[in-house]
Design goal:
The chain is mainly alpha-helical and about 450 residues long. Helix content is about 60%, strand content about 5%. The strands form two sheets. A four-stranded antiparallel sheet has the order 1-2-4-3.
Length: about 450
Amino acid sequence: MKTNKELAADILEKLGGADNVTHATHCITRLRVNLADDSKGDLEALKQMEGAMGAQIKDGQWQVIIGPKVGDVFLEFEPLLGAKSAGDMDLDAGGKAKVLDILTGIFSPIIPALVAGGIVKGVLAVIAGFGIDTGSGDWAIFNMMSDIPFYFLPFLLSVSAAKKFKVNPFLALCVAGSLMYPTLVSAVGTGESPFTLFGIALPVFSYASSVFPVIFGVAGLSVVYRVIDKFIPDLFKLVVVPALSLMIVIPLNLAVLAPIGAWCGIGLANGIVWLFDTFGPLAGFLLGFFMPLIVLFGMHQSTSPIQISNIATLGYDYLLPVSFCHNLAESGAALGASLKMKDPAMRSAGLTCSFSAFMGISEPALFTVQVPNKTPLFGAMLCCGIGGMLTVILGAKCYGFVMPGITSLPVYMDPSGAMGNLLSIAACLVASFCIAAVTSYILTKPIEA
């Protein structure tokens, strides 16, 4: 078994070396790299590499599927790039920032904090199910613990956005602080604005748990800082550039960028609500049906802002249940296919992938079982669609941001302690897993060694 350092070195070698890398980042399971010269990379060698679960090129970006330990591998990978660390490179090889890459780069680092808060919230809901008041006494500190990552989300996002936009993280925290300033927070809901700019009252929104306002603000800070930095002599840079940047960006953000971001978040959440209210089970089926392809192409992280926005505005999310059913369907499809495999090594790999998807990581099942054998992929897509449709019919909800694996089940417990929602998602999961396993077993031809 290779160490993380050895795996990182092997990946870099097959990508053409440090000089060939123009940008590197990672999401939850994938190392994402842009190359100066794609011809120097060896995709087939990456696919067959020990320690990697697959590889692909999507929109010019090389993606190496590693699994949950991708963050540890990236920590070994980044120093190998030499003086040009990943955080100092261009956003991509062609200099065109992709929206998906930006969202992935911003959200991936903060997911552990969000998942931690979601799990604590789920455990509290389970405890409340036994008739215990979790809103007071010793439980109050755990309630606070579950709310911190979501309420102070602008601060978490400002740090990761600063790295993505290559600007000082402490200045970015100041931008987030302006959105969470007590005077502004206390004005929410009063109908009055505590701040004016050129005699015009600034709009007031609740920026706690918001996503886009701080991202827009840090992006604006990055642009303004670079423009000012070009014109200020080196002798005065340390004093003048940060001060001028904040003096320009914070009023601009409060007046224009943050309100636009708030409206985007509200509009996005309302649009999804309208879609599901209008098309109901059909919307759930289509989202579930295409979920394997969305994950296959590495686009699944783009839904994180929507999920977080739903939880912040509605108190729950209905997209995460579809993702949960997708992972269980992937697990069932991998299990069904592996039972048709006569080669012990292939069967073992299929069972391992099934367990991985059951725990919340579906890429191994997709790249190792579904895609190479095709029929399990169709079975998984069909059953993901059925699972997604069932989540809408049964009204399954997720009350915290979590990874869609079996360990996240407590987060589906209604905070009131009622069991109805937990039973609904359990029915969806069992149906997705069992139907996918049977369908995949029937459709898959016996696979020889």
